[in-house]
Amino acid sequence: MEEQKRRAPRVNKLFLAAYINREGEEQKTPVLLGKTFNISSAGLGMEVYQEIAAGSMMEMEIDLLDSLLDVKGRVIHVNRVEEGRYLIGVEFSEPQEQLAGFKP
Q: In a 3-state reduction of DSSP, which class is residue 98?
């Protein structure tokens, strides 16, 4: 059995997210759109369409269908899938307890 490395189990959920990318205090991107492929109270996996450096800080607004969630987080890893498409892992700066109730 594979060991769970995450602080909170993630569930596969598709939500749209608007985000900006910061490196230090400098805003590196305009507001861009991405989509989640998994999410938990501690972080998310997201597909984005512009390269983002690991370690970058992100400010996100996630459309949870019945509400909007404003969160900040740090990009933990980046995987290039193809030109112009990246899968990133983001760890939230603070746990998001409203996401803990999502079921697989």
A: helix
